[in-house]
Structures are given as C-alpha cells and as structure tokens.
Specification:
The protein is of the alpha/beta class. It has 12 helices and 15 strands. The strands form 4 sheets. Strands 2-10-9-8-5-3-4 form a 7-stranded mixed beta sheet, sandwiched between helices. Strand 14 and strand 15 form a beta hairpin. The model has no long low-confidence stretch (mean pLDDT 96).
Length: 366
C-alpha cells in the first residue's frame, strides 16, 4: 500500500510530531498493572488542567470523539427524556441524532451554517421547555469554523438548573474553555485534534450533578457505561483494553501543553488565527463564520469557484491537505486547520499555496 505523502492541515486529524510517534514505539505495559495506573493518573491529572476542572469524574475512552459524544448521551438520557440541542453545523446535528437513537425527544435550537447560537435565544428556549434537563451543544463547530459562547451558555444553564453538555472535540486546546468556572456540566474531547496524537482516544468529564444523572439513567450501556469506568478508575484502570501506545503520546502532548500553560496556548492559537485571517482579507476573500474559532479558518468560496478543485490541487501538487466543506457545504468553503503545534511560518506558507491554487481555479472559472 502506498502511503499518502502530504502534510495535514485539516481540522483533525493533524500531523503528529516525531517525538510523539517515537514515544508510541516504547514497549507496552500491561493495563492491569500498577505501572499503567501511574500513566492513567498522570493523563487524567493533565486533562483536568487542560479542561480547567477539579472533577473526579474524568475518563479516557478508547474511541474517537464521537465515542465520547455517544457516551455522554447513553449515560445522561433515558428513553422518553427531552433534551435541548443547539445546532449550528454538522456536529450539533450529530448530538441530535445521538439523542434520538437513545430514545430521547429533541427540542432544536437551530441557526444557519456559519452562525453561532445567540445566548439569549438559548435562554428563551429553555424558559419554554421545563422538561429538558440536558442542553447539548458544541464549543467549536468544525464544519463551519464557528465558536459558541460557552461561558454565557453555562451561566444560563446554571441559573435555570440545566446540565450543559459541550462537544469540545475540536476546540479543546486552541479555544478557551473553563469547565468549572463556566458551569459546564459535561465536556467531551478527542486526542487527534488539538492534542496532535493519532486518532483513537477520547475523553469525557462530568461534574457531580451530571454524575447523579448518570446514576439515574435507564438506558442500556455496555462499552460506554461510565459506572464501569468509575469502578475501574479506583484502581487506575479502564474497564476495557485501552490503546496503551496512544496514552504514551498523549502524556507527552499534555506535558507540552501544560508547560506552556492554557492561557498562553489559547493566546498562541488566537494569534495564529488572526494572522491567517488577515491574509485572507488581504486577498479579498471572506471568512465564513461570523464568530470564528481559533482552531481552524474557514474561507467562503466566491460564486462559481469550486473549493473541491482547490483542495485537490493543493494535495496533488503541493502535498498539503486542506479540508473541503462537509455535505451541502462541499465546494462552498475551504477549511484550513491549525489545531495542533504549527508555526506561523508554516501557516503562511500553506496560505500561499492555497492562494496560488485558488487563483488558478478562479481564473479557469471565469
């Protein structure tokens, strides 16, 4: 099999640093021994600091980010429960689908692609739906590049006694999130985005009030039964065989992020995003989301310009992989990810390659 020879500037997975890959080549420990318990303890402690939470209910799952999303729904929703789902893109839609699959009833709060959810609209929605205990939303909507105001959402949910459940799979690391201070009940994340390790690990953190909901849930659960994770965590273990090599890489990644400190990490990503968007504006192009996240830059394609051709040209000629739009957004936007460790010089080079391909495609379209 021929391996692809290109650099990843997609919104995840991202290029994995060489030292992370080298660490993954270390000999395996047995996941029922105390040595793995020490690794598990260090990973959980690091994730607590990244999420800015003191919760004891933080578990690492051997699954992609969608696995953590499913774990949240399976453990919080019982058949017949009502939930509010705030949707502004494909991953909000994924929350909706998961709640329905687990027997819940969805009260949607929907905004068009490219927009963020206005907090006052969320408050109005919750005041007209006393039965919905959980609110599901996203921090960084990867399909559109939009950022939601999770701090405002958390304040509203706290006042109205609701549980705010946040998909932070793409945003965790690049975009500011303070779980405890912002009254977020549940955070889910994934390792192949801002943590820059290969896909295969995800995380879920729940506060004590959310854990009470877990204990009350009547849904069927097995692999994602968080009660099992809690029981095994007391011995530094996971209920099922974990992706041990990925733990090694995650631990190195966490040390890198925490050495820098989360405020500095957020600031660095904000500066990278601002530098790239300044170049987009100089080129006369438009940023797609109204409130863009730090994790990626999404560029709207002018009428008649097919972003699919730009992505293909950058991949084949320049060995740089950008991301197309998803579903109905395909060809209408180009997404440039800068979630992982990337320098400003690298990002500027990638934009020059994008712009060269854009000009060629646009010229042929005229």
């Amino acid at each position: 099999m021929v391996k692809p020879k290109y650099r990843l500037f997609t919104p995840g997975p991202v290029d994995v640093p060489a030292n992370f890959l080298k660490e993954m080549a270390s000999p395996l420990v047995y996941h029922r021994e105390a040595s793995f318990g020490e690794i598990q303890k260090a990973v959980v402690s690091g994730l607590q600091r990244v999420m800015m939470t003191a919760t004891r209910h933080l578990y690492v799952l051997t699954a992609s980010g969608t696995g953590a999303m499913e774990a949240a729904v399976a453990n919080l929703i019982s058949p017949g429960d009502k939930a509010v789902v705030a949707i502004a893109g494909k991953f909000g839609e994924r929350w909706r689908e998961l709640v329905i699959r687990y027997g819940g009833y969805v009260d949607e709060l929907v905004r068009p692609y490219g927009e963020s959810i206005p907090p006052d609209e969320l408050e109005r929605k919750l005041r007209t739906n006393d039965a919905a205990r959980c609110v599901f939303t996203t921090l960084t909507e990867t399909s559109t590049g939009a950022l939601n105001d999770i701090r405002a959402f958390g304040e509203i949910c706290y006042r109205l006694n609701r549980l705010l459940v946040v998909d932070a799979v793409a945003g965790l690391g690049p975009d500011e999130l303070r779980m405890d201070a912002w009254n977020v009940a549940v955070v889910v994340g994934g390792a192949q985005k801002g943590f820059a390790i290969p896909p295969g690990l995800s995380f879920i953190a729940l506060n004590d009030i959310a854990w009470e909901q877990v204990e009350r849930s009547r849904n069927c659960r097995f692999y994602f039964d968080l009660r099992q994770y809690r029981r095994f965590a007391e011995n530094g273990q996971t209920p099922w065989t974990p992706a041990i090599s990925l733990y090694y890489a995650l631990l190195v990644s966490l040390k890198r992020m925490l050495r820098q400190g989360m405020p500095a990490c957020w600031k660095e990503h904000a500066q990278l995003a601002a530098a790239l968007r300044a170049k987009v504006a100089e080129a006369g192009l438009e940023i797609f989301p109204q409130q863009p996240a730090n994790a990626l830059t999404v560029i709207r394609m002018p009428e008649g310009v097919d972003g699919t051709k730009i992505v293909e040209l950058c991949k084949k000629r320049d060995r740089v992989l950008l991301a197309n739009g998803q579903a109905e957004m395909r060809g209408r936007v180009v997404r440039i990810g800068h979630l992982g460790p990337v320098s400003k010089a690298e990002l500027m080079r990638v934009f020059r390659l994008f712009l060269r391909a854009f000009n060629e495609v646009a010229g042929r379209s005229r």
